[in-house]
Amino acid sequence: EARNQRAFADYYRGHPYIWVPDVIDELSTHNVLTTEFVNGKTFDEAFEMSQQDRDRYAEILYRFVFRSLNRQLAFNGDPHPGNYLLADDGRLAFLDFGLVKYFDPAEVDQFTALIQAMIYGDHHRFRQEAERVQVLRPGAPFSDDDVFEWFSSYYELILEDRELTITPEYSGQLLRKTFDAKANAILKHTNVPPTFALIQRINLGLFSILAKLNATANWRQISEELWAWTDAEPSTPIGEHEATWLAAHPRPANSEGPKG
């Protein structure tokens, strides 16, 4: 866990909105992890803030998850309000790096291929890619259109270039789609291969937090900033500050996991 936290702390060092506290090695042991102290409030307090503040924290959280995945090639697999703190200086502090998955570029390319087929509306290609990466069993008795329509719920935030509010209804729909085989004929023909297993926590954990925040943003534009294959210009004030940070602190992709 200490190695994971060091890797994230190093990657996000100096970020204007994201803070991963440094590990204090001299006060840590095999059984005890000691980090920088975070002055602030629990994330639960964000749920009672103004909608403007909730949207702000939602965007920071979204950027952390998807920048880590697409640029650092890593995913901290426990998205939970208890693992975030609202620092007094306005940053969002991230804790608990015990469950981290590091991806190689080929694995991230699988996610990219599915996203591209989905946002370009290529139903046949999406089915081909879904079968290739083994999230859909070959020969499932459904049309390409049916398959595309079923999976599209998981990509709804990025399908169109427009503002979208993440609601509890949307989060609940994803939860039912993921687990209720009786109500979802296609679900019986899907798989969750190892590369995608931890990513399911985005659907179950991250989106439930964003839904509780009732967060609104143009998630497509933000995502295009974070995807390496689009690398778009900043679309929000937070994105502009993040771009300034990136210019001053270039971050190479890390496909080899933590060092030391």
Would you kindly provide a written description of the structure presented here, covering whatever features stand out?
With 260 residues, the protein is α+β, with helices and mostly antiparallel strands. The protein folds into two domains: 2-99 and 215-248, no CATH class; 105-163 and 174-195, no CATH class. 44% of the residues lie in helices and 8% in strands. It contains ten helices and eight strands. The chain has a four-stranded mixed sheet, with helices on one face. A two-stranded antiparallel sheet has the order 3-6. The chain has a two-stranded antiparallel sheet with strand order 7-8. A hairpin with a 4-residue loop joins β4 (84-87) and β5. Mean pLDDT is 91; it is low at 255-260.
Task: Name the descriptors.
four-stranded mixed β-sheet; globular; alpha+beta; disordered C terminus; 2 domains; 260 residues; two-stranded antiparallel ribbon
